[in-house]
Amino acid sequence: MSECGKKVSESTVVLVQVMTQQDANLAGNVHGGNIMKLADTAAGVAAMRHSGGNVVTASVDRFDFHAPVYIGNIVTLKASLNHAGRTSMEVGVRVEAEDLFSGKKIHTNSCYFTMVALDTQGRPTEVSPLVPETEDDRRRTAAGRERVANRKKLIPKE
Q1: Residue ranges making up the domain that contains 139
Q2: d(CA 22, CA 146)
Q3: pLDDT tens digit sequence for 119-155
């Protein structure tokens, strides 16, 4: 764990994949579960880059589909850390689909994953602080801090 922290850009991930018939249902739309799996993968890689070790998915906020993804589309997922707590990280993922023939890109999803860093024994372990670099990073970090606080309010007290 770095004492001074890690920059947002050090863990940002861009995952690009072409959608094929194996990804789609009978109507030619890509299964939502395939998009969710890709988003989880992108979030996991960003969190692993930040933590320097293994991570698990603890939760995902709403995963609303704003537009369909079709066979032949290129799907681009951008994952960036918004918040780093003691052992957990919030990773924002933006999903876009691109029609290769027209070049038209459409935003299909945005969501937030909470990932937890694990040590070699599989127990939660501390992560480096997150260092925002740009004004957009600072805005996203402040919003992430607020979402984390709101999530904590929803955890049942034992």
Answers
A1: 6-154
A2: 39
A3: 999 999 999 999 999 999 999 999 999 999 988 888 7
